[in-house]
């Protein structure tokens, strides 16, 4: 009986980890003129290699990390059962994820 509850608990923990780390990867985002930087054209963001940017006031809530192979990793707010109507996009990620 204990092992059954352990498996259920591990399954729930794995699901929680998947939701908490919603990420998108965008490859080949080398900055056209700045060596050692990534460029996220959609938001006009320049990010130094191995650094994270927390953009504000870009009509979206996310953080973006520039890997040393010029791949961008974007982390977004976790999905909710009831989507927010309003968030404060003037705050950096993850504070901008909170419903107001």
From TrEMBL:
Where found?
Secreted
Q: Which PROSITE patterns match?
A: PROKAR_LIPOPROTEIN
**Does the entry feature the keyword Cell membrane, yes or no?**
no
The segment(s) forming the Single domain are 38-99
In the record, what lineage is assigned to the organism producing the protein? Eukaryota, Metazoa, Ecdysozoa, Arthropoda, Hexapoda
Where does the signal peptide begin and end? 1-21
Q: Name one GO cellular component term.
A: extracellular region
Top-level taxon? Eukaryota
**Protein's UniProt name:** Single domain-containing protein
Per the record, the gene is 105261609
What does the UniProt keyword field contain? Secreted, Signal
């Amino acid at each position: 009986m204990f092992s059954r509850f352990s498996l259920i608990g591990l399954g729930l923990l794995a699901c929680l980890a998947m939701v908490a780390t919603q990420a998108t990867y965008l490859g080949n985002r080398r900055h056209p003129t700045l060596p050692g930087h990534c460029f996220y054209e959609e938001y006009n963001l320049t990010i130094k290699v191995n650094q994270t940017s927390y953009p504000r006031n870009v009509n979206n809530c996310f953080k973006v990390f520039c890997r040393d192979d010029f791949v961008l990793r974007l982390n977004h707010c976790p999905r909710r059962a009831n989507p927010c109507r309003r968030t404060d996009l003037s705050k950096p990620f993850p504070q901008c994820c909170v419903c107001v």
